[in-house]
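## retry 2 of 3
previous attempt timed out at serialization; input unchanged, resubmitting
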Amino acid sequence: MVANKCFWMVKLLDQAMFLFASYLGNSLTQFGIPLTRLGIPSVVLLGDDTNTTPGPQSEAGGNSAIVNSSQEAPDEGQRNSTDTTETTMNGDTDPPEKKKRKTSKVWNEFTVVSLKDGIKKNQCNYCRARLAYQNTGSTTYLNRHMLTCGVRLASIFGKTQQVLTLPTMEPDSKIGNLTSFRYDKEKVRDILAKMIIVHEYPFRMVEHAFFQLLMKTLNPKFESMSRVTVRADCMKIYALEKKKIKALLGSVDRISLTSDLWTSNQTIGYMCLTAHFLDNDWNLQKRVLNFISMPPPHTGLMISDSIFSCLNDWGIKNKISTITLDNVSSNDSAVRHLKDSFTLKKYLFFGGKIFHVRCCAHILNIMVQDGLIVIHDIISKVRESVKYIKGSSARLHKFNEIARQLQLSSTKRLVLDVSTRWNSTYAMLLSASEFKDVFPRYHERDPNYKSVPSYEDWEKASKIMEFLEVFNEATNVFSGYEYPTANLFLPEVWKIKQLFELTVVDDCEYMKAMAFKMKDKFDKYWGECNLLMIIASILDPRYKMQLVIFCFSKIYLNEFEAKMKIDVVKDAIYDLYNYYVEMHKSQQPSQTNMDSGPSGSSNNTSLLEKNKTKSRSEFDMWAQSVESIAPSKSDLDAYLEEVMNHELVVYELAV
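## retry succeeded, writing output
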């Protein structure tokens, strides 16, 4: 009886010990401390996260195992290879081996990987470092790595802890002070999209292996992205910039347009529409509004419809003052259709008198191209010589060797012209004339070279270059984009007209023929006064009306015709001034509203105050009637009557 009681007491004590070991094991294993270090038998894990009561005694007389209630069912890929054997009280039997659960939190930061040779490693989920795999289940060295892993610490403390770095500076600037740095994923994506837009890189570049390797090397936090994502970022930037430009154009009163149309080598037509305007600080601004494809046919109606659609999209169709186009018949037709549309909507500014502006640079190009046709034989020898020399690297090398022997400038190079650009022909003649002594010497070394220019050819080319220099200077003036150019139009036209008058009486027949041909084009396009350019010249304080009178007397040899053109200009500038005066008055609040007091105050006004108000009103009416009768000068009259700086004007015209 006593032995039986002792047996059950031992039994209960045994069960209590295992329950205590199970509870203590849950607490210690969270810190990576094995139970075997404390001399406590390992607990066999048999089930899931439910508690299991002690089972009946096994057939071998041993006690059943206790299940740790805090453990979760392990995944096959994350089980530890260390096997733990179920321990019984008498140790007579050994149940089947089972893998120990990974209870340490360190396994959330590591993954067990198998190498090609079958060796297992513990790989850090942040920096990808591979540490030794131990069958003992020790995690102390893994904890040490977690405390020193820079990538892990950056991901945890990146939002609060900052890194010192030097600020981004220009290459020529001096080194500044240290500043704090924080990796901004959105900023990196924004800069990457802008880089692709500005430098016209393909979207697929972000998927290139070495680009991703470069970005990962610069910053391990960089996240790879696809070309679809980058394209979406670029479109977001486009939408944002378009919204900004819309807001900017909304604060502008008047906008001038320039447009051009051309066909690519893939036979695809494109049209570009650019807006020019003055901002609130009176700074000249320009923005490319649209760059769109234009399906054929490129008729005037198609061009006008495309331009009107773009203006409607930007919401500025009621702000257009002028449009500048090339001198093509389809553009003339497009302007007529646009005028009709604007007149119907009452959007046409100043009655359309200055709506259409012909491109001055294009007029010069057409004019000079017609003149170069007359002297084609003179230029063809130089062109063929340059084409022959540049057609082979061996010939070009031999040509440069001769130039060095003659101690000519090594920085000069032969230039081949483009048939559609006359200024490239001028550049070709200018560069070839520097090597006029090299061509005959090269001819002695290369018998296949047949088109060598003679001494007379170079004399003719020299006179042609002197003649074309005036047109080249005018083209550079008209093509400026960082400064207003309309006010510079009239002096350049006068210089060209003066050049024609001198050349048509030249002794050289080829110069006469070229000048007459170009003068016909000049009279065709500038026979009618370009009104906007003349008004711009008048508004230049250096010139005013005196320059118009002087230039018209030179351009129009008939005195009656010159006076008639001057009267047209005077009427136009006064009409434009009165137009702005009326527009300004319509925008000002009425005098009655400004003088009137708050509502209900008339009841409290004394009789004396009423008499004063009545007397003041009568005086105002009398003063207005007197002012309307008495002659007065407008601001425009005062401006035109001011004295000019004659020395400055003479200097400008001489230049």
